[in-house]
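F.,

This is the one I mentioned.
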């Protein structure tokens, strides 16, 4: 990519989240920041988390690009505008266009999942009992529907996805497909072919998804000329996804069963019937990406309620000693020294600001892991390998993580307010309903 020869015509709109807009060109994407339209005097500052990925783009290119993609942006995302002033962007590998893809063969399928938080907080730190029974995602669903963000509640529960139990994972993915919201997308050959439209009454087009998926699943079981029901296509698709999510990085990872964790891994709001787990929960293989995400999420050991007093301690300290901001790495940089602070956290609160800072840092990292997405790339194996195969066809797969933004220090106080709103809304409206 030659930065002085950037042409907006090469780049196409790829997608966006709450904070950034992404354009793609072949094997690369550019991730540009967005900010609220009414803040046009205060364009955002790029958090320099990963220096080598940041590129400085010609401003004219960025301006033309923002005009070009504007009409492709979903209306509900347009309360924010793309940053056209800094010229800064992250240049990342395009995870929907994996390198293993050979253009002459069937295009790869890439499935993006934003799993959210996969465990319940410990009863020690929470003031409302319901938080130890119903997971944050399920409670948040009621809040979002009550506030009109989504028309329908999703029956996806992250605790099912993170369970490591095949049936529960299957169930979770089925509900992600039925109500994808912003937690599920499918890309084919780098193009998004399935996602949700916020605020819309329409369900996403499952028939069209199945139409795209069918050819990938017809090969197996000599189904080439035979009929395959939509239900079977969907089941095979989900089964392949579960396999990919349970697969490891090639190492020999065992299954970790931690009793304390197991008790906190079932959500009462999930409509998955507990009795259907005949052989008990399995737990995630320790070399799976899901396991690593969950471990990182669990750095949030105190829940926002237990953390907040420590956050206040740090805030007070910074008021008294403003110069400490740098030493304590409140705004980063998120480097080795930051990681060390996080890892060297004493087990017990000794009343120090160091302990408080370490817990706040851990919480922020956990928040990043609760907000990240994973991309499962499925590349069909050659047909010859599939002959007289039973079950779904073979794919080679890779699982990567995206959207790993550091959460700002002051997001902690916002989190406390949001937590209170979600819990009280659930107790008011949702808790009574099945
Ligand atoms: P969120 O609101 O979830 O925090 P965000 O604003 O931080 O989102 P991202 O999730 O990083 O933005 O990017 C928006 C979308 O762009 C993603 O959901 C994904 O579909 C796509 N995307 C981002 N990075 C990549 C990548 N490296 N390769 C392919 N697609 C990507
Ligand atoms: Mg995202
Ligand atoms: Zn749940
Ligand atoms: Mg993000």
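My design for it:
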């Amino acid at each position: 990519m030659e930065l002085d020869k950037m042409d907006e015509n090469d780049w196409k709109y790829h997608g966006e989240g709450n904070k950034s807009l992404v354009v793609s060109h072949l094997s690369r994407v550019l991730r540009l920041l967005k900010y609220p339209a009414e803040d046009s005097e205060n364009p955002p500052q790029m958090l320099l988390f990963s220096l080598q990925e940041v590129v400085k783009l010609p401003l004219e290119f960025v301006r033309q690009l923002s005009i070009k993609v504007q009409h492709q942006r979903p209306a509900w995302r347009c309360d924010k505008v793309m940053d056209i002033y800094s010229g800064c962007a992250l240049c990342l590998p395009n995870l929907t266009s994996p390198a293993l893809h050979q253009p002459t063969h069937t295009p790869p399928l890439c499935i993006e999942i934003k799993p959210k938080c996969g465990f319940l907080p410990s009863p020690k730190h929470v003031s409302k009992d319901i938080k130890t029974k119903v997971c944050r995602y399920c409670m948040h669903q009621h809040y979002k529907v009550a506030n009109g963000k989504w028309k329908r509640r999703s029956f996806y529960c992250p605790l099912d996805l993170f369970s490591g139990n095949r049936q529960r994972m299957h169930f979770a993915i089925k509900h992600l497909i039925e109500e994808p919201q912003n937690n599920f997308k499918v890309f084919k050959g780098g193009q998004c072919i399935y996602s949700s439209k916020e605020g819309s009454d329409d369900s996403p087009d499952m028939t069209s998804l199945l139409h795209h998926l069918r050819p990938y699943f017809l090969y197996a079981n000599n189904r080439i000329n035979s009929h395959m029901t939509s239900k079977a296509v969907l089941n095979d698709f989900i089964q392949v996804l579960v396999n990919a999510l349970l697969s490891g990085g090639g190492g020999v990872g065992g299954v970790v069963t931690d009793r304390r964790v197991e008790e906190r891994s079932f959500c009462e709001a999930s409509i998955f019937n507990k009795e259907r787990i005949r052989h008990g929960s399995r737990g995630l293989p320790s070399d799976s990406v899901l396991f690593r995400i969950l471990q990182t999420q669990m750095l949030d050991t105190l829940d926002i309620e237990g953390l907040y007093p420590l956050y206040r301690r740090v805030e007070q300290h910074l008021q008294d000693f403003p110069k400490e901001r740098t030493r304590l790495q409140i705004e980063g940089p998120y480097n080795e020294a930051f990681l060390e602070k996080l890892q060297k956290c004493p087990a017990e609160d000794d009343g120090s600001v160091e302990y408080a800072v370490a817990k706040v840092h851990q919480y922020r990292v956990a928040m990043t892991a609760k907000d990240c997405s994973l991309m499962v790339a499925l590349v069909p194996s050659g047909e010859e390998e599939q002959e007289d195969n039973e079950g779904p066809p073979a794919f080679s797969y890779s699982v990567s993580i995206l959207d790993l933004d550091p959460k700002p220090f002051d997001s902690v106080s916002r989190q406390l307010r949001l937590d209170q709103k979600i819990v009280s809304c659930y107790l008011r409206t949702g808790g009574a309903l099945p």
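Residues 109-114+133-282+376-400+417-430 form one domain.

Talk soon.
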